[in-house]
Specification:
The protein is of the alpha/beta class. It has helices spanning 19-26, 64-86, 116-132, 143-152, 156-161, 225-240, 246-254, 258-283, 299-311, 350-361, 435-450, 455-472, 491-504, 513-523, 541-544, and strands at residues 2-6, 9-13, 34-39, 42-45, 54-60, 93-100, 103-109, 137-142, 169-175, 178-180, 197-201, 204-208, 288-292, 316-321, 366-372, 377-385, 391-396, 414-420, 426-428, 431-432, 482-485. The protein folds into three domains: 2-60, Roll (Ubiquitin-like (UB roll)); 66-234, Threonyl-tRNA Synthetase, Chain A, domain 2 (2-Layer Sandwich); 235-544, 3-Layer(aba) Sandwich (Rossmann fold), CATH 3.40.50. 37% of the residues lie in helices and 21% in strands.
């Protein structure tokens, strides 16, 4: 017998008892389903067994790490259903491409087009697998044996990925004869996937899964056509360059083709910025270019590069930061914890901003403020502006797309741009790279370089940043005239060199250790590259340093 301490209570269990059995005994004390277990400070799956005295706590689907395990398990069950219904010989590949709302979009490649009837049968098969509560087992294989398994199942992306694996073994999961690899923890069986739906969307599948806020409720899916097509374009860029996964990127690096790949990617991005600039000019009478997007999207570099493109059309752009219209610190609203809420709309002096912009629109000479973040006060230092026929204001801020921000300005004078780092590169076909991971690593590197903020603090603040984005940015993204994806297909191989030392600085006794460990494991997939080939005007430079712009 071993002693297990849970929530201050000590109970005895026979050695070899699964943590799933122990979790069952305590499930009634939790509002949400238990997904993972923390054993003596180490995260483990519920299929693991107890071997010694331990202090134990649980993660539920409400926790980010528990929710990720639910997503992976649902994806494996869905992919198994696709092969069961359509046949391994028919399906050339199933790729989990990106997230649209709470839906995971999957591209199913085969000779015939996917039909509504096929999707209905896949949905039904997935429900059968869930109802059967089939076990998901895990076994460690030698790396050579694992690659042979992937080769036999025509999973070339995984075989290529593990060519660069440094460790000698790899864990492979099995569901009813279907073998696969997943980056992260999994749930014990299909019966845990209680809430999901599979629908036909565009030319592929959409797997709908609840979010962490309400993990037992499936939200109504609202199509986001602009976001979807922006993501799809980025995926096609990757395919065009022959880089669909991390394994492809590593191959490109090791073949010595890095320089050309960076030039092509940057050229594609510059062409896209030029297309947006032409759209602004073609609209006519635009005086306010409004740029908004979540944290670490590269808004500042983008605004500089867009301004250069506008100048090629004879326009005279002037950058303005909405942050310069912050209310004085003592007037800033506070959140539920009593901390200043700098991300709510009320933190901006909207009335003064609209007054100044309307006066500029009328041709008046206006003195614009700058915000002193040290004193928490708005200051006026003689920054006068007066708009001529070719002048345009390029305004950057998280509330740029919110109609309340520019309520009194005529719509014909505005051009709205949504920018985000929408990751299109996958670890492999079944393991996508979350957009939030790329932005978090960007912010971590930039904060350490420009603000002296350590990685632990950046990770600690990230949930609050994400909540602000969900409330104040994402609801307005579809109202944009244009969307811009700022992700560079090579950037994580560059950022790796800067992020790893910062992450290693987080110690085991700190709450952010588990997230740091997860990110370090993720970065292991990439072959690191030097930054010398990154152009000085690249968005990547906003985070790693060396930009030709004042960022």
């Amino acid at each position: 017998m071993v002693n297990i301490s849970i929530n201050g209570e000590v109970k005895q269990y026979p050695k070899g008892t699964t943590f799933e059995k122990i979790a069952d005994d305590y499930q009634s004390q939790y509002d949400n389903m238990i997904a993972l277990v923390l054993v003596n400070g180490k995260i483990q799956e519920l299929i693991k067994t107890v071997r010694e005295d331990a202090e134990v706590s649980f993660f539920t689907l409400k926790d980010n790490i528990g929710h990720k395990a639910y997503v992976r398990t649902a994806i494996m069950t869905m992919i198994k259903s696709v092969y069961d219904v359509l046949g391994e010989e028919t399906v050339k590949r199933v790729k989990v491409e990106f997230v649209v709302g709470q839906g995971y979009y999957c591209d199913v490649r085969m000779d015939d087009a996917l039909t509504d009837e096929m999707v209905k049968r896949i949905n039904e098969r997935m429900r059968e697998l869930v109802e059967a509560n089939l076990p998901i087992t895990k076994k460690s294989y030698h790396i050579d044996e694992a690659r042979a398994i992937f080769r036999a199942h025509k999973m070339e992306d995984k075989e290529k990925l593990f060519r660069y694996r440094r460790s000698s073994s790899v864990n492979i999961y099995c569901l009813d004869g279907y073998y696969d690899y997943y980056y992260g923890y999994m749930l014990p069986s299909t019966g845990y996937i209680k809430y999901f739906d599979v629908m036909h969307y565009e030319s592929g599948l959409l797997l709908l899964i609840p979010g962490t806020e309400a993990p037992d409720k499936l939200s109504y899916f609202e199509p986001k056509d602009k976001l979807f097509h922006t993501l799809q374009t980025s995926s096609k860029w990757g395919e065009m360059m022959g880089i669909d996964s991390v394994g492809d990127l590593n191959d490109t690096i090791c073949r010595g083709e890095l320089g050309d790949m960076i030039l092509v990617q940057e050229a594609l991005m510059e062409r896209r910025i030029g297309e947006i600039a032409k759209g602004i000019v073609d609209k006519g009478n635009v005086k306010f270019v409004l740029i908004a997007g979540p944290s670490s999207s590269g808004k500042t570099t983008f605004s500089h590069r867009l301004s250069i493109q506008l100048r090629t059309y004879g326009m005279i752009p002037h950058p303005i930061a909405l942050d310069d219209y912050f209310v004085d610190r003592e007037k800033t609203p506070r959140d539920e914890n009593g901390d200043y809420n700098f991300e709510c709309l009320e933190a901006i002096d909207i009335a003064q901003f609209n007054e100044d912009m309307n006066r500029l629109l009328k041709g008046e000479r206006v003195e614009l403020p700058s915000f002193n973040f040290k004193t928490g006060k708005r200051e006026y230092k003689g920054n006068f502006k007066q708009l001529g026929p070719e002048d345009v204001l390029v305004i950057e801020g998280i509330h740029g797309l919110n109609p309340k921000t520019t309520l009194s300005l005529p719509d014909e004078s505005k051009f709205k741009i949504y920018i985000s780092a929408l990751t299109s590169l996958n670890v492999d076909e079944h393991n996508r790279i979350p957009t939030t991971d790329g932005r978090l690593l960007r912010r971590m590197v930039r904060d350490a370089r420009t603000r002296g903020t350590n990685a632990r603090r950046t990770i600690e603040m990230w949930p609050s940043v994400r909540r602000g984005e969900e409330m104040y940015i994402f609801p307005f993204q579809e109202s944009a005239d244009e969307m811009f994806n700022s992700v560079l297909i090579y950037e994580l191989a560059v950022i790796k060199q800067y992020a790893e030392p910062l992450l290693f600085g987080i110690t085991e006794d700190q709450a952010e250790y588990h997230e740091a460990k997860r990110l370090l494991k993720f970065l292991e997939y990439f072959q690191g590259i030097d930054s010398q080939n990154v152009p000085s005007n690249s968005i990547c430079r906003e985070f790693i340093g060396g930009s030709c712009f004042n960022v």
